Protein backbone atom coordinates (compact mmCIF):
# COMPACT_ATOMS: atom_id res chain seq x y z
CA UNK A 1 0.00 0.00 0.00
CA UNK A 2 2.94 2.34 0.64
CA UNK A 3 4.21 1.76 -2.90
CA UNK A 4 0.75 2.36 -4.31
CA UNK A 5 0.49 5.59 -2.31
CA UNK A 6 3.86 6.75 -3.66
CA UNK A 7 2.78 5.95 -7.23
CA UNK A 8 -0.50 7.80 -6.75
CA UNK A 9 1.34 10.88 -5.50
CA UNK A 10 3.84 10.76 -8.37
CA UNK A 11 1.19 10.28 -11.04
CA UNK A 12 -0.87 13.10 -9.56
CA UNK A 13 2.15 15.42 -9.57
CA UNK A 14 3.06 14.47 -13.14
CA UNK A 15 -0.38 14.35 -14.78
CA UNK A 16 -2.96 15.52 -12.18
CA UNK A 17 -5.38 12.75 -13.25
CA UNK A 18 -3.09 9.72 -13.20
CA UNK A 19 -3.37 9.22 -9.46
CA UNK A 20 -7.14 9.03 -9.72
CA UNK A 21 -6.88 6.45 -12.51
CA UNK A 22 -4.46 4.35 -10.44
CA UNK A 23 -6.76 4.47 -7.42
CA UNK A 24 -9.77 3.47 -9.51
CA UNK A 25 -7.79 0.58 -11.01
CA UNK A 26 -6.90 -0.59 -7.50
CA UNK A 27 -10.52 -0.49 -6.42
CA UNK A 28 -11.71 -2.47 -9.46
CA UNK A 29 -8.82 -4.85 -10.07
CA UNK A 30 -10.98 -7.77 -9.00
CA UNK A 31 -12.61 -7.36 -12.41
CA UNK A 32 -9.44 -8.47 -14.18
CA UNK A 33 -5.90 -7.36 -14.95
CA UNK A 34 -4.69 -4.17 -13.28
CA UNK A 35 -3.00 -2.41 -16.20
CA UNK A 36 -5.90 -2.58 -18.60
CA UNK A 37 -8.35 -0.85 -16.21
CA UNK A 38 -5.68 1.72 -15.34
CA UNK A 39 -5.15 2.78 -18.96
CA UNK A 40 -8.89 2.71 -19.64
CA UNK A 41 -9.57 4.97 -16.66
CA UNK A 42 -6.66 7.26 -17.52
CA UNK A 43 -7.77 7.70 -21.13
CA UNK A 44 -11.37 8.21 -20.06
CA UNK A 45 -10.36 10.87 -17.53
CA UNK A 46 -8.22 12.62 -20.15
CA UNK A 47 -11.07 12.71 -22.66
CA UNK A 48 -13.45 13.94 -19.96
CA UNK A 49 -11.00 16.71 -19.02
CA UNK A 50 -10.74 17.79 -22.67
CA UNK A 51 -14.48 18.51 -22.78
CA UNK A 52 -15.08 19.71 -19.22
CA UNK A 53 -12.04 21.91 -18.55
CA UNK A 54 -13.45 24.73 -20.75
CA UNK A 55 -16.40 24.90 -18.37
CA UNK A 56 -13.99 25.84 -15.58
CA UNK A 57 -11.94 28.32 -17.61
CA UNK A 58 -9.19 26.21 -19.18
CA UNK A 59 -8.82 25.24 -22.83
CA UNK A 60 -6.58 22.55 -24.32
CA UNK A 61 -3.95 23.50 -26.87
CA UNK A 62 -4.00 21.40 -30.07
CA UNK A 63 -2.10 18.16 -29.73
CA UNK A 64 -1.26 17.89 -33.43
CA UNK A 65 -0.31 20.38 -36.11
CA UNK A 66 -3.28 22.73 -36.42
CA UNK A 67 -1.89 24.73 -39.34
CA UNK A 68 0.67 27.54 -39.45
CA UNK A 69 -1.66 30.16 -37.98
CA UNK A 70 -2.35 28.23 -34.78
CA UNK A 71 -0.28 27.20 -31.79
CA UNK A 72 0.17 23.46 -31.12
CA UNK A 73 2.21 21.47 -28.64
CA UNK A 74 5.66 20.39 -29.75
CA UNK A 75 5.11 16.79 -28.70
CA UNK A 76 1.79 14.95 -28.12
CA UNK A 77 3.36 13.73 -24.88
CA UNK A 78 2.27 17.02 -23.30
CA UNK A 79 -1.33 16.13 -24.10
CA UNK A 80 -0.90 12.58 -22.82
CA UNK A 81 0.27 14.07 -19.51
CA UNK A 82 -2.55 16.68 -19.39
CA UNK A 83 -0.06 19.56 -19.32
CA UNK A 84 -1.46 21.51 -22.29
CA UNK A 85 -4.24 23.61 -20.73
CA UNK A 86 -4.39 27.41 -20.64
CA UNK A 87 -6.97 30.11 -20.07
CA UNK A 88 -8.76 31.22 -23.27
CA UNK A 89 -6.91 34.55 -23.33
CA UNK A 90 -3.56 32.76 -23.39
CA UNK A 91 -4.63 30.47 -26.22
CA UNK A 92 -5.84 33.46 -28.26
CA UNK A 93 -2.55 35.26 -27.63
CA UNK A 94 -0.51 32.22 -28.62
CA UNK A 95 -2.58 31.79 -31.78
CA UNK A 96 -1.99 35.46 -32.63
CA UNK A 97 1.75 34.89 -32.21
CA UNK A 98 1.64 31.82 -34.46
CA UNK A 99 -0.30 33.74 -37.11
CA UNK A 100 2.19 36.60 -36.99
CA UNK A 101 5.17 34.28 -37.32
CA UNK A 102 3.56 32.57 -40.31
CA UNK A 103 2.90 35.95 -41.90
CA UNK A 104 6.45 37.16 -41.25
CA UNK A 105 8.09 33.87 -42.27
CA UNK A 106 5.59 31.78 -44.28
CA UNK A 107 5.32 28.17 -43.18
CA UNK A 108 6.76 28.76 -39.71
CA UNK A 109 5.21 26.57 -37.02
CA UNK A 110 5.03 27.87 -33.44
CA UNK A 111 5.15 25.21 -30.74
CA UNK A 112 4.16 25.15 -27.06
CA UNK A 113 5.79 23.18 -24.26
CA UNK A 114 4.42 22.98 -20.70
CA UNK A 115 1.28 24.99 -20.01
CA UNK A 116 -0.94 23.89 -17.11
CA UNK A 117 -3.21 21.16 -15.80
CA UNK A 118 -6.92 21.15 -16.68
CA UNK A 119 -8.35 21.85 -13.22
CA UNK A 120 -7.84 23.77 -9.96
CA UNK A 121 -5.94 27.05 -9.64
CA UNK A 122 -2.90 26.70 -7.42
CA UNK A 123 -2.29 23.06 -8.36
CA UNK A 124 1.48 22.91 -9.05
CA UNK A 125 2.97 21.62 -12.31
CA UNK A 126 6.34 20.09 -11.33
CA UNK A 127 9.13 20.93 -11.86
CA UNK A 128 7.95 24.49 -12.56
CA UNK A 129 7.69 27.04 -9.79
CA UNK A 130 4.57 28.53 -11.38
CA UNK A 131 2.34 27.12 -14.17
CA UNK A 132 -0.43 26.58 -11.63
CA UNK A 133 -3.33 28.60 -13.02
CA UNK A 134 -3.42 28.26 -16.82
CA UNK A 135 -1.93 31.73 -17.26
CA UNK A 136 1.61 30.56 -17.97
CA UNK A 137 2.93 29.00 -21.14
CA UNK A 138 6.38 27.90 -22.30
CA UNK A 139 7.22 28.39 -25.96
CA UNK A 140 9.81 26.44 -27.90
CA UNK A 141 12.60 28.21 -29.75
CA UNK A 142 12.98 27.94 -33.51
CA UNK A 143 16.00 26.06 -34.87
CA UNK A 144 17.92 25.50 -38.08
CA UNK A 145 20.11 22.62 -39.15
CA UNK A 146 23.84 23.07 -39.69
CA UNK A 147 23.21 24.34 -43.22
CA UNK A 148 20.91 27.08 -41.92
CA UNK A 149 17.63 25.51 -43.07
CA UNK A 150 14.70 26.11 -40.73
CA UNK A 151 13.50 22.96 -38.98
CA UNK A 152 9.73 22.97 -39.34
CA UNK A 153 8.03 22.74 -35.93
CA UNK A 154 10.93 20.87 -34.36
CA UNK A 155 13.36 21.55 -31.50
CA UNK A 156 16.80 20.33 -30.47
CA UNK A 157 15.24 17.86 -28.02
CA UNK A 158 12.07 15.84 -28.51
CA UNK A 159 10.32 17.67 -25.66
CA UNK A 160 11.84 21.09 -26.36
CA UNK A 161 13.56 21.48 -22.99
CA UNK A 162 17.22 21.04 -22.01
CA UNK A 163 18.71 21.83 -25.42
CA UNK A 164 20.36 24.90 -23.95
CA UNK A 165 21.73 27.70 -26.12
CA UNK A 166 25.07 28.16 -24.39
CA UNK A 167 26.29 31.70 -23.66
CA UNK A 168 29.19 32.97 -25.69
CA UNK A 169 32.35 34.45 -24.29
CA UNK A 170 31.58 37.88 -22.91
CA UNK A 171 27.83 37.26 -22.66
CA UNK A 172 26.11 38.20 -19.38
CA UNK A 173 25.99 35.23 -17.01
CA UNK A 174 24.46 36.38 -13.71
CA UNK A 175 24.42 32.83 -12.31
CA UNK A 176 27.99 31.87 -13.18
CA UNK A 177 29.00 31.79 -9.51
CA UNK A 178 25.77 30.23 -8.26
CA UNK A 179 26.24 27.47 -5.68
CA UNK A 180 23.89 25.38 -3.59
CA UNK A 181 20.77 23.40 -4.39
CA UNK A 182 18.43 24.86 -7.01
CA UNK A 183 16.53 23.99 -10.18
CA UNK A 184 19.13 25.43 -12.55
CA UNK A 185 20.17 22.10 -14.04
CA UNK A 186 22.76 22.11 -16.81
CA UNK A 187 21.89 18.56 -17.89
CA UNK A 188 25.47 18.18 -19.14
CA UNK A 189 25.13 14.39 -19.45
CA UNK A 190 22.24 14.80 -21.89
CA UNK A 191 23.75 17.37 -24.27
CA UNK A 192 25.73 14.89 -26.45
CA UNK A 193 22.48 13.03 -27.25
CA UNK A 194 20.56 16.08 -28.47
CA UNK A 195 20.35 17.39 -32.02
CA UNK A 196 23.23 19.74 -32.75
CA UNK A 197 21.03 22.45 -34.20
CA UNK A 198 21.81 26.18 -34.02
CA UNK A 199 19.21 28.58 -32.71
CA UNK A 200 17.23 30.28 -35.48
CA UNK A 201 18.04 33.75 -34.21
CA UNK A 202 15.95 35.52 -36.83
CA UNK A 203 12.69 33.74 -36.05
CA UNK A 204 13.29 33.47 -32.31
CA UNK A 205 14.21 37.15 -32.16
CA UNK A 206 11.03 38.06 -34.03
CA UNK A 207 8.97 35.94 -31.64
CA UNK A 208 10.53 37.65 -28.63
CA UNK A 209 10.02 41.10 -30.19
CA UNK A 210 6.35 40.44 -30.99
CA UNK A 211 5.64 39.08 -27.52
CA UNK A 212 7.34 42.06 -25.89
CA UNK A 213 5.50 44.62 -28.00
CA UNK A 214 2.04 43.02 -27.68
CA UNK A 215 1.37 42.75 -23.96
CA UNK A 216 -1.87 41.42 -22.50
CA UNK A 217 -2.60 43.17 -19.22
CA UNK A 218 -0.49 44.77 -16.51
CA UNK A 219 0.85 41.44 -15.25
CA UNK A 220 2.33 40.48 -18.62
CA UNK A 221 5.83 39.05 -18.31
CA UNK A 222 8.35 37.25 -20.52
CA UNK A 223 11.22 35.29 -18.97
CA UNK A 224 14.38 34.39 -20.87
CA UNK A 225 18.10 34.27 -20.12
CA UNK A 226 19.90 37.66 -20.26
CA UNK A 227 22.52 36.44 -22.72
CA UNK A 228 19.76 35.63 -25.24
CA UNK A 229 18.11 39.01 -24.73
CA UNK A 230 21.43 40.55 -25.70
CA UNK A 231 22.06 38.17 -28.60
CA UNK A 232 18.59 38.58 -30.08
CA UNK A 233 18.73 42.35 -29.70
CA UNK A 234 15.32 42.82 -28.08
CA UNK A 235 15.08 45.13 -25.08
CA UNK A 236 11.71 45.74 -23.44
CA UNK A 237 10.29 46.34 -19.97
CA UNK A 238 8.13 43.21 -20.31
CA UNK A 239 11.21 40.98 -20.60
CA UNK A 240 12.75 39.76 -17.35
CA UNK A 241 15.06 37.20 -15.78
CA UNK A 242 13.63 34.34 -13.74
CA UNK A 243 16.49 34.35 -11.23
CA UNK A 244 19.21 31.90 -10.36
CA UNK A 245 17.08 29.54 -8.27
CA UNK A 246 14.73 28.61 -11.13
CA UNK A 247 15.37 26.46 -14.18
CA UNK A 248 17.43 27.81 -17.05
CA UNK A 249 15.49 29.72 -19.70
CA UNK A 250 17.88 29.46 -22.64
CA UNK A 251 15.96 26.49 -24.04
CA UNK A 252 12.52 28.15 -24.12
CA UNK A 253 10.59 31.38 -23.53
CA UNK A 254 8.28 31.58 -20.51
CA UNK A 255 5.18 33.71 -20.99
CA UNK A 256 2.80 34.69 -18.21
CA UNK A 257 -0.17 36.98 -17.72
CA UNK A 258 0.10 37.45 -13.94
CA UNK A 259 3.04 38.27 -11.63
Write up this protein:
A four-stranded mixed beta sheet has the order 5-8-6-7, with helices on one face. It contains seven helices and eight strands, in the order αααββαβαββαβαββ. Helices cover 32% and strands 9% of the residues. The protein is α/β, with parallel strands linked by helices and 259 residues long.
Counted beta strands: 8
Instruction: Tell the overall outline.
Output: globular
Report the major sheet: 4 strands, mixed
**Could you estimate the helical fraction of the residues in percent?**
25-40%
Radius of gyration: 19 Å
Q: Ends: how far apart?
A: 40 Å
User: What portion of residues belong to β-strands?
Assistant: 5-15%
Order of helical and strand elements: HHHEEHEHEEHEHEE
By secondary-structure content and strand pairing, the structural class works out as alpha/beta
**How many DSSP helices?**
7
Keywords:
8 strands, 32% helix, alpha/beta, 259 residues, 7 helices, two-stranded antiparallel sheet
Question: In short, what is this structure?
Answer:
With 259 residues, the protein is α/β, with parallel strands linked by helices. It is built from seven helices and eight strands; from the N terminus they run αααββαβαββαβαββ. It has helices at 2-15, 18-27, 35-52, 77-80, 88-104, 201-213, 226-232, and strands at residues 59-60, 72-73, 85-86, 111-112, 136-140, 221-223, 239-240, 252-256.
Amino acid sequence: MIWHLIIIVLLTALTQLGGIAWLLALLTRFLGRFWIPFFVYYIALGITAHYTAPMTGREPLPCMDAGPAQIAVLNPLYCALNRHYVVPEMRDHADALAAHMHEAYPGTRTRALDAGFPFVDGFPLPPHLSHDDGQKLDLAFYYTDQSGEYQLGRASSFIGYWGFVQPREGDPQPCADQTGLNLRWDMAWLQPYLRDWPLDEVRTGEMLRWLAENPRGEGYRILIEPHLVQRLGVQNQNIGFQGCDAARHDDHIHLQFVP
